[in-house]
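Exercise: predict the fold of this chain.
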Amino acid sequence: MVVALHGGFGHGRDFIWTWLREARRRGFILMAPTSTETTWSLLDPGLDGTRLISMIEYARDHWNIDCDHMLLTGISDGATFALVSAIQPGSPFTALAPVAGVLPPMNLKAAKDKRIFWVHGALDWMFPVQSARTAVERLESAGADVTLRVIEDLSHTYPREENSRILQWFEPDLALSD
């Protein structure tokens, strides 16, 4: 299962297209929820977090979900919310792939042993690449297994062409040549 979170002022029905081709070709379940407000509830993670967990529980009840392979990804505010959501005790997500996000000040105790593939643009004007490098250092110090991929010519946008690389890192059996 891949859960993909849109950025600020986005919508799940638009962001789903970023991942739909890969889901169809590789046969995994894709979810692209929409935040309650104009962006994810970063100041009150329980607001959107509770809804997100309810959706996942619904999916588990109705489809064959491999609970050992659940990826949470997102762009910008969606990436930041993915980090906040997945680095919580009891999080159902086994891997994270934030894109152009930022790690907010938070307790990183639950980051131990989390697998994270962080994608960031060297030209990101909203969250400078140094913020990603600093976040990776903090996460690694907390015991997370982090891979940082800096794309030299990328600004603050979603690099759809990275989906295959993310999937290959997440689950090599999902890797296909595009």
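Check your answer against the key: The helical segments are 12-15, 17-26, 45-62, 77-86, 129-141, 163-170.
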